[in-house]
Amino acid sequence: MTLAARTGLECSQCRTSDHVAALRYAYAMRPLRYSINITLDGCCDHRAMFADEELHRHAAENLAQADALLFGRVTYEMMEAAFRPPTRTVARPDWMEPFAQSIDAAKKYVVSRTMDRVDWNAELVRGDLGKAVQQLKRESGKGLLVGGVKLPLALAELGLIDEYEFLVQPRLAGHGPTLFAGLSKRVDLKLVSRLELASGVVSMRYEPRR
Questions:
Q1: Quick one: 165 and 143 in the same domain?
Q2: Domain co-membership, 121 together with 187
Q3: Are residues 12 and 55 located together in one domain of the fold?
Q4: Distance CA 15, CA 65 (A)
Q5: CA 81 to CA 103: how far, in whole Å?
Q6: pLDDT tens-digit readout, 55-80
Q7: What rounded mean pLDDT belongs to the chain?
Q8: Do 44 and 15 sit in the same domain of this protein?
Q9: Separation of alpha carbons 35 and 129, rounded Å
């Protein structure tokens, strides 16, 4: 079976070697996945969330599926303060260690116009965001994982997120902020998986309808 037939794109264009090569190139790109905790009333403030062993185990599994992390400045600095060994100042439970060790070791890309340098196994991303992220996606590997709020909004605007995971916590925060505030166009999604955790958190993964 030809590549074009497998992808459902059999057409006169697909009979050209250049077009088939382009299809192979497109399907070789590693996915960009987004994961975030939210409350039932839509709040995405991390201070409104609870964390337990199962949630951290789930987060560590997400890290294991990624070759690198993509952060904005705020998320990078928050994660560095919490999980970089030399800067750690608060004791944490033993069950948090697998996640802490994974995020400490992970390759990180940081999107920032104001930071001069990063050194937590990290590299600054500057210039055109769309072109920079497309280049990262073209590199071989399992995938990229993005966190935070503002950077994912920009990436959603550019149509660069391949999977959205919302971990919905059984809690009403009574305040914001909310996700994707200011998104200029609707993004339609299809549910691809659903997982209930013992705490009542429900993980729902979606892919964009292309």
A1: yes
A2: yes
A3: no
A4: 35
A5: 12
A6: 999 999 999 999 999 999 999 999 99
A7: 88
A8: no
A9: 19
pLDDT band for position 91 (cuts 50, 70, 90): confident
Asked if residue 128 lies in contact with residue 50, where contact means CB atoms within 8 angstroms, the answer is no
**Pair 95, 51: CB distance under 8 Å:** no
- Paired with 41 in beta bridges are none
C-alpha to C-alpha distances, 45 to 29, 37, 41, 148, nearest whole angstrom: 31, 9, 12, 10
**What angle do the packed helices 73-83 and 97-105 form, to 10 degrees?**
130
**Can you tell me the distance from the alpha carbon of 129 to that of 192, in angstroms, rounded to the nearest whole number?**
27
Q: How many CB atoms lie within 10 A of CB 2?
A: 12
CATH number at residue 158: 3.40.430.10
Tokens of 188: 């339609």
Contact 145, 163 (CB under 8 A): no
Give the domain range for residue 79.
31-208
Q: Could you tell me the pTM of the whole model? A: 0.84
Q: Are residues 2 and 85 in the same domain?
A: no
Q: Which 8-state DSSP code applies to residue 74? A: H
Residue 9 pLDDT grade (very low, low, confident, very high; cuts 50, 70, 90): very low
Residues 84, 14, single domain; the answer is: no
Q: What is the pLDDT of residue 21?
A: 43
Helical (H) or strand (E) element with 124: strand 122-125
Structure tokens at 102: 């994974």
Number of domains in the chain: 2
Q: Are 157 and 184 in contact (CB under 8 A)?
A: yes
Tokens describing residue 106? 């992970």
pLDDT confidence of 147, banded at 50, 70, 90?
very high
